[in-house]
Amino acid sequence: MSGETNAPGATDAPPPHRRRVARNTAIFAVATGLSRIAGLVREVVAASYFGTGGPASAFTIASQIPNLMSNLFAQAALSAAFVPVFTDLLQQGKKREAFRLASTLFWIILIVLGGLTALGILGAGVIMPLFTGSTFNAALNHLTAGLAQVLFPVVLLLGLTGLLVGILQSYDEFTIPAIAPAVWNLVILVGLVSLHSRFHGGDRLYAYAIAWLVATVVQMLMVASALRRIDFRLGFSIDWRDPRVGQVFVLMLPVTIGLGIVNLDQLLNTVFGALVSVNAPRAIDNAFRIYMLPQGMFSVAVATVLFPTLSRLANRRDVAEMRRAVGNGMRQINLLLIPSAAVLIVLATPITRLVYQRGHFNAYSTHLVSIALFWFAFSLPFGGINLLLTRTFFALQRPWIPTKLAAMNIVVDLIVSLALYKPLGIAGLVIGTVVANVVMTYLQLARLRRGFNGRLELGQTMMITVRILIATAITTVAAWLIWKGLDALLGRALIAELVELGVAGAVAIVLYARLVLVMRIPEAHQVQDLILGRLRAR
C-alpha cells in the first residue's frame, strides 16, 4: 500500500484487503452484538411491563407495519441499490458526482417518504385493522392504530438513515453505523423506564412508542455526524438530470420487492399469529428477538462488511476473488451459527425463562415463546447464508434474481403456514419460516453457482460444514448435560438459572473452540489469528 494513507477520504475507494475485512467484521460483530444485547435487555424490560397480552401484541403489529414500509421503500432496499452505484463512481475517481447523487437521493427520500409517512398517520385507523385479525376487539384495534400513528415517522427517519449508512459503508466506515443501533436500544430503554409510569392500562404502550421514535431520531443524528470522517457535504439541490438517479431506482425496484418479500415473512407470522390467539404475535416477536442475537452478531456482520468489497470485486470483474470471498463468508456463518442454533434448540425453554420470565411475563408466556424459539433456531444458519447470497446478487447488480427467488420463498411460507397454523399453532407458523429459508438457500446457491460457471467452493464448504456439525453435536450434548445437572442441583431461582446457563455456555464455547481448531477448520484459525493479533497490538 505504498504511497497511500489511511486517513478517511484520502482515496475515493480504498482497495479491498482481507485483513481490513476481517477487522471490520470483528468491529461490526462486536458492535452489533452489543446492540442485540441492548435490544434484548429492552425487550426483557418491555416483557416485564406488558407480558404477551393483547396490548403487547397491538404494539408488535403497530411497529411492524412502519418497519416493513421503511424496508420496502428505503433503508436496506435503498442502501443495497445505492452502494454499488456510489462505489462505482468512487472507483472511477468521480467523488463530486458521487456526492451530488447522494444529495439528490436525500431530498427525494425526504419528499417521497415524508408523504408516505403523512398518509400512514392519517390512515392508521383504516390500515391497521386489516392486520389484526378476528381475535382483536375494538379497543385493541384502536390502540394498534394510535400506536402506529406515533411510529409512522420512523419510515422517513429510517429511510434517510439508510442512505447515510450506505455512504459510510462505501468508505468502509462501519463503526458508527454499527454502534448507532446499540445507542438506539439504550435510548428506548431509558425512555420506556422514564415514561412508563406516566400512562395507565393499555395506554402504557404509548411510552414504548414515544421512546422508539425519539431513539430513531438520535440514531439518524449519530450516523449523520459520522459523515464528517469522509468530508461529505449535503447539497441543497436535486439533480433530476443525473442518469444515476434513475439507475439507483431501477436497481432499487427489484431490491425493494425482494427485501419486502423477505420482510413479509415476519409480518405473516404476526398476522397469522393474531388468528391463533391474542398472545401469539407478541410471543413470536419475543422469540425472534432472541433468534436475532446470534443472527445479528455473526451473519449480519459478515454480509454487511463484505458487501462493499463484493461490489468492488464485481466492478473489477474479479470472479475468482469474489468466489473465494463468498465461500469464506458462508463457512464463517456456518462456523458461528450452526452451534448457536443447536444451543437454542436444546435449551430453548431455560433460555426463554431466564431472559423474560418476570413481572407480567409468566410461565405460560415462557411456554409460548420457547415453542417459537425452538423452531426459529432451525432457520438460523439458513437465514444467515441467505442474507450473504442476496447481498452477493446485489453487488453483481443482478437484484431481480433474488427477487424472483424471494417471491417463491414467500409462496412456500404461505402454503406451509396456512397448512400448519391451525393444527400446530405458533409452531406451525415458524415451521413455515424454516422451510421457506431452506428452499431459498438451495435456490440461491444453485443460481449463483451457475453464474460462477459451476464453481462456488461448495465441496470445500460441505467438507468443513461436516466438521462443524460433528463439533457442534459434541458441544451441544456437553452443554445440555451440564445444564441438566446444575438445574437439578441449584433449582430455578434467577441467580441459579444464570449460573446454570452461564457455566453450560462457557464450557460449550471453550470446548467448541478447541474442537474446531483441532479439526483444522481454516475459518476457526482466521478468528483465532484475528483475536491474537488484536491482543498483541495492545
* Range of strand content: under 5%
User: Which regions have little confidence, pLDDT < 50, spanning 5+ residues?
Assistant: 1-17
The backbone outline, from C-alpha atoms, is globular
| SSE pattern, N- to C-terminal | HHHHHHHHHHHHHHHHHHH
The percent range for helix content is: over 70%
* Sheet with most strands: none
**Mean pLDDT score:** 83
Distance from first to last alpha carbon: 23 Å
Q: Rg from C-alpha positions?
A: 23 Å
Structural class call reads mainly alpha
> Helix count?
19
Q: What would you note in describing this structure?
A:
The structure is a single chain. The chain is mainly alpha-helical and 538 residues long. The protein folds into 2 domains: 31-456, no CATH class; 458-533, no CATH class. It has 19 helices and no strands. Helix 1 (18-50) packs antiparallel against helix 10, helix 9 (243-276) runs parallel beside helix 15 and helix 11 runs parallel beside helix 17. The longest helix is centred in the middle third of the chain and has 37 residues, at 280-316. It is globular, with a radius of gyration of 23 Å. The model is unreliable at 1-17 (pLDDT under 50).
Key features of this structure:
2 domains, disordered N terminus, 82% helix, mainly alpha
Concise description?
With 538 residues, the protein is mainly alpha-helical. Helices cover 82% and strands 0% of the residues.
What's the topology here?
Layout: H1 18-50, H2 54-73, H3 76-91, H4 95-127, H5 138-151, H6 153-170, H7 175-195, H8 205-226, H9 243-276, H10 280-316, H11 319-346, H12 348-356, H13 363-378, H14 380-395, H15 400-424, H16 426-451, H17 458-490, H18 494-518, H19 522-537
Helix pairs in contact: 1-7, 1-10, 2-5, 2-6, 2-9, 2-10, 3-4, 3-6, 3-9, 3-10, 4-5, 4-6, 5-8, 6-8, 7-8, 9-10, 9-15, 9-16, 10-11, 10-13, 10-14, 11-13, 11-14, 11-17, 12-13, 13-16, 14-16, 15-16, 17-18
